[in-house]
Design goal:
Layout (H helix, E strand, L loop, with lengths): L1 H9 L4 H30 L2 H17 L1 H19 L3 H28 L1 H7 L5 H16 L1 H9 L3 H24 L3 H23 L1 H5 L8 H33 L2 H37 L5 H24 L1 H8 L12 H23 L3 H20 L4 H27 L3
Helix pairs in contact: 2-9, 2-13, 3-7, 3-12, 3-13, 4-5, 4-8, 4-12, 4-13, 5-7, 5-8, 7-10, 9-10, 12-13, 12-16, 12-17, 13-14, 13-16, 14-16, 16-18, 17-18
C-alpha cells in the first residue's frame, strides 16, 4: 500500500502531467474565451461573413507553416541545450533564430501582399483590405514564433498558459467592441492584430537577457537547424493541412452559406482537438530533454497516451450521443442549427487527428524523419480525396476520417515499438 501511495504521489512532479495540466487548464480558459469570441461572431455576423472569417483563419494557419517549423525547431534545440546546461548555446540559438526569422518575415510580407488579389479571388473575398490584414497577422505570428519555441523548450508552461489567457482576453475585449460598433470581419482582424502585438512585445521584454547577452559560441548551428528543419517542415505541413485544408476547399467548392455552416461545425468539433493537443506539445519537449539526458521515455509516453485517450474518448461519446446539446453550446443561433448533423462525425475526425498529432510529435522528438514524410503524403491524399469527393459536407468529413485511419494504421506499430524502449 505504501509503495502504491508513493507511486501515485510521484506523478505530482511528472513533467508530462504538470505541463499538460497547465496547458490544458489554460487551454480550457482560452477555449472559453474563444467560445465567447465565436458567440460574438455568431451573434453579429451572418453565416456568409462567418464563412469569410473562418476561411481567413484557415488561410492564416496554412501560410503560417514557417512559424510552426521555427517554433518546433527552436523548441527542440532549446530543450536539448537546456537539459545539457549549455547557456551559451541557448543564447546563440535565440539570437540566430531571430535574425533568420526577421529576414524571412520581410520577404514573406512582400510576397503575400503582391498576390493579395489572387488569394481574394480564390476565396471569393472581394475586400482586399481583409487579405492585407490577414497577411499582417501571419507575419506577426512568424516573428514571435522563436520566443514561443523557447518557452516550450524550457518547459515554461505556466508562462505559456498565462500569456495564452492574456491574449484571448485582449482579443475578446477588442473584438467585442469593434464588432459591436459595426466593424464586422475588419474589426475581428484588427482585434487579433492588437492582441498579438501586445503579447509579442511583452514576450520580448521577458526574454531580453537572451537577446542582449553576448555569446561567441560556434557549434555549427546553421547545419543543425537545416538538418532538423526538413522533417519538421514535413510534420508541420501535414498538421497544418489536416487542420485547415478542409475549410479552404469547402469555401471554394460550396455556397457561402454552406461554407459558413461547415466552418461552425469545425469550430465545435475541434474543441476535442484543442483539449487534447497540450499532451502532444508537452510530450515533444519532455522527450527531447530526456533523450539529451539519456533517460527513459517509457513512463512519459504512457502518461501522454493515457491523458489523450481517456478524455478524448469521453468527449467523442458526448459529441456522438448529444450533438444537439453540443451544437447549442457553441452556436445557439438558429441559423447554425444544421451543424448538429455533422458534429459527431467531425468529432471523430478531431479525436483521430489528436492521436495522429501525438504520435507525430513523438516521432519528431525521436528524430524518426521518415514518419513525418508519411504524414505529409497523407495530408496531400486528404486534399485529393476531398477534391474528388465533395458532393456533401458529410462526404468531405468522411474523406478526412479515412485519411486519419490510414495514417494511424501505419503509425501505431512503430509508436508502440519505440515507446516501450528504456
Amino acid at each position: 500500500m505504501n509503495k502504491l501511495l508513493r507511486y501515485i504521489l510521484s506523478f505530482r512532479t511528472n513533467q508530462i502531467i504538470t505541463g499538460s495540466f497547465w496547458l490544458t487548464a489554460g487551454g480550457l480558459f482560452v477555449n472559453l474565451g474563444n467560445y465567447l469570441f465565436n458567440l460574438v461572431m455568431g451573434r453579429f455576423l451572418t453565416p456568409a461573413d462567418f464563412g469569410i472569417i473562418s476561411s481567413l483563419f484557415s488561410l492564416t494557419v496554412i501560410i503560417s507553416l514557417p512559424s510552426a517549423v521555427i517554433t518546433t525547431v527552436t523548441a527542440k534545440f532549446a530543450a536539448s541545450f537546456f537539459a545539457s546546461n549549455e547557456r551559451r548555446k541557448l543564447i546563440r540559438l535565440y539570437q540566430k533564430m531571430h535574425i533568420y526569422t526577421i529576414g524571412f518575415s520581410i520577404l514573406l510580407l512582400i510576397g503575400l501582399l503582391s498576390i493579395g488579389d489572387v488569394i481574394g479571388d480564390f476565396l471569393n473575398i472581394r475586400e482586399r483590405q481583409l487579405i492585407d490584414l490577414t497577411v499582417i497577422i501571419i507575419v506577426i505570428g512568424l516573428v514571435s514564433s522563436v520566443i514561443g519555441g523557447f518557452l516550450r523548450g524550457l518547459l515554461l508552461f505556466k508562462l505559456m498558459t498565462a500569456l495564452g489567457v492574456l491574449g484571448v482576453l485582449m482579443k475578446l475585449g477588442f473584438g467585442w467592441y469593434l464588432v459591436a460598433i459595426g466593424q464586422g470581419v475588419f474589426g475581428i482582424l484588427i482585434a487579433i492584430i492588437a492582441s498579438s502585438v501586445i503579447t509579442w512585445i511583452y514576450l520580448l521584454w521577458i526574454m531580453r537577457s537572451y537577446m542582449f547577452e553576448t555569446s561567441t559560441a560556434s557549434f555549427g548551428l546553421r547545419k543543425h537547424i537545416i538538418s532538423f528543419s526538413y522533417p519538421t517542415l514535413a510534420a508541420s505541413a501535414a498538421s497544418t493541412l489536416f487542420i485547415s485544408s478542409d475549410i479552404i476547399l469547402v469555401k471554394h467548392f460550396f455556397h457561402e452559406k454552406e461554407a459558413g455552416i461547415f466552418a461552425a461545425t469545425v469550430i465545435a468539433g475541434k474543441a476535442i482537438f484543442y483539449l487534447l493537443i497540450p499532451m502532444s506539445t508537452v510530450l515533444f519537449s519532455v522527450v527531447s530533454q530526456q533523450i539529451a539526458r539519456k533517460r527513459s521515455i517509457v513512463k512519459d509516453t504512457r502518461i501522454s497516451l493515457i491523458l489523450t485517450l481517456i478524455p478524448g474518448l469521453g468527449a467523442l461519446a458526448a459529441y456522438s450521443f448529444m450533438p444537439e446539446l453540443i451544437g447549442r453550446v457553441f452556436f445557439p443561433s438558429q441559423a447554425y442549427a444544421s451543424i448538429t448533423s455533422y458534429i459527431g462525425l467531425y468529432g471523430l475526425y478531431a479525436f483521430l487527428l489528436s492521436m495522429v498529432v501525438l504520435m507525430l510529435h513523438f516521432f519528431l522528438a525521436m528524430e524518426k524523419k521518415q514518419t513525418t514524410y508519411i504524414a505529409f503524403a497523407c495530408s496531400l491524399l486528404q486534399i485529393v480525396l476531398i477534391i474528388l469527393f465533395h458532393k456533401t459536407i458529410g462526404q468531405v468529413i468522411i474523406m478526412s476520417i479515412i485519411t486519419m485511419v490510414l495514417l494511424l494504421s501505419i503509425y501505431t506499430p512503430s509508436f508502440i515499438r519505440l515507446s516501450v524502449r528504456k
